[in-house]
Each structure stands twice: as C-alpha cells, then as structure tokens.
C-alpha cells in the first residue's frame, strides 16, 4: 500500500524497486502493471508491453517503469526504444489508444534496487510513520556536535531510548541532515557526515 493504493509485486526485484520508489518524497502515486504501451517488433507488427509500474510525481510528470534484471538490459533497451518510437502510445481497456500517455519510460534493475537499498528504504519508511519530534530534535542537536566523519553508533551513546534514537537518525538521513559515507545497509558501523 502506498498513498492508499495497493502496489502489487510479481517478483522480489519488483518488490525492491517499489520500496526504493516509495522512498522518494516527490512521488505522489505508484500503479502496478500499468500502462500497456505499444511498439513495433522487428517485423513491424504492433505489439504491447505491460509496464511493471507507473509513477506519478508531485509535479504531474508520469514515468512508466520496466523492471528487469541487468542481464536483460540490452534487450530491454531495444524494447524501450521501440516504445519511444511509437510516441508512448497507450493501449486503453476499451481498445482505443492514447498517444503521449506518459512523459518517460525507464528501466530499473537490481543495480538501483540492491538489497541494502531496499532494507534502508523499508526502515526509513517505517521511521516516517514512527516519528518522535522530541527525539528527532535531541538527535539533531547531538549530531551537530560532530565534525568530519563518524559512525551511526556514535550517536547512540548515552541516549535514553535506542529504538527512538535509531528512528530519529534514519529520519535525519532521510531529510539530508546526515549523509551516509559508506554504501550498503545502514547499521551501527555506517560512516556518516553532517551536511552543513
């Protein structure tokens, strides 16, 4: 569920891509298995491709997303070019078509949606729901005392409620106050820096 719309996943990779997309603050809606876009195959026959997701941004931009493993990137690049060549022609349920139905079409693979990115997105989305403003303020003040690089765990020392502090730290990362300096899953050893 994202903004009161059920988001379906037909694979683990789609689930990971969905969470990474949901983390973006400029995403208004995500629809599964939509739209159906038309393209011409090598013989010139008109065919359809069901996109894995349709993402609507706050500014009104609509981007269809194809989710495939990186090993299929060459085939997908060709397919996406064929869809573009048809002018993003959407096949509607009633059999009609709509040209220019989307603004863009993108391919997302396991490179953008690693397990670490997925886990971080899940934890930050949960932190947004569990926000404690008082603990956020305390964590913000404590983070301002650090200069240079330090570890996530350094900000857990001496706090009264480690769970609430972890939530606050994830929100500080989400809001760009803290930046991760090491890739992968955010844990106590993740190197951080205060963005000033």
Separation, N- and C-terminal Cα atoms: 35 Å
Major sheet: 4 strands, mixed
| Rough outline | elongated
- How many helical elements? 5
Instruction: Report the C-alpha radius of gyration, rounded.
Output: 21 Å
Topology, number of strands: 11
Tell me the series of helices and strands, N- to C-terminal.
HEEEEEHEEEHHEHEE
**In order across it, which strands form the biggest sheet?**
1-4-5-8
Q: What structural class should be given to the helix and strand makeup? A: alpha+beta
Strand share of the residues?
15-25%
Helix content: 25-40%
The overall pLDDT average reads: 96
**Multimeric status of the protein:** single chain
Low-confidence stretches: none
Keywords for this entry:
5 helices; 3-stranded antiparallel β-sheet; 4-stranded mixed β-sheet
SSE topology:
Elements (H helix, E strand, L loop, with lengths): L11 H12 L3 E6 L3 E5 L5 E5 L2 E5 L4 E6 L5 H13 L4 E2 L5 E2 L5 E5 L6 H15 L3 H11 L5 E3 L10 H13 L3 E3 L10 E4 L2
Parallel strand pairs: 5-8
Antiparallel strand pairs: 1-4, 2-3, 4-5, 6-7, 9-11, 10-11
Explain this structure to me?
The protein has 196 residues and is an alpha+beta fold. It is 33% helix and 23% strand. The protein contains five helices and eleven strands; from the N terminus they run H-E-E-E-E-E-H-E-E-E-H-H-E-H-E-E. The chain has helices spanning 12-23, 73-85, 115-129, 133-143, 162-174; strands at 27-32, 36-40, 46-50, 53-57, 62-67, 90-91, 97-98, 104-108, 149-151, 178-180, 191-194. The protein has a four-stranded mixed β-sheet with strand order 1-4-5-8, sandwiched between helices. A three-stranded antiparallel β-sheet has the order 9-11-10. Strand 4 and strand 5 (62-67) form a beta hairpin. The protein starts with 11 loop residues before the first helix and ends with a strand. The model has no long low-confidence stretch (mean pLDDT 96).
């Amino acid at each position: 569920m994202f903004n009161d719309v059920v988001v379906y996943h037909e694979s683990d990779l789609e689930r990971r891509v969905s969470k990474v997309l949901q983390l973006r603050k400029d995403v208004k809606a995500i629809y599964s298995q939509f739209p159906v876009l038309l393209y011409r195959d090598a013989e010139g026959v008109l065919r359809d491709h069901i996109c894995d997701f349709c993402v609507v941004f706050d500014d009104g931009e609509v981007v269809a997303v194809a989710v495939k493993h990186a090993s299929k990137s060459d085939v997908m690049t060709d397919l996406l070019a064929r869809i573009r060549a048809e002018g993003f022609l959407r096949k509607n349920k009633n059999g009609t078509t709509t040209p220019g139905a989307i603004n863009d079409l993108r391919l997302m693979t396991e490179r953008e949606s690693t397990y670490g990115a997925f886990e971080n997105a899940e934890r930050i989305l949960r932190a947004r729901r569990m926000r404690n403003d008082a603990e956020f303020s305390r964590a913000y003040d404590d983070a301002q005392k650090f200069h240079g690089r330090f570890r996530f765990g350094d900000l857990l020392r001496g706090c009264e409620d480690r769970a609430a502090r972890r939530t606050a730290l994830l929100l500080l990362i989400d809001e760009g106050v803290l930046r991760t300096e090491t890739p992968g899953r955010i844990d106590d050893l993740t190197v951080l820096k205060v963005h000033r």
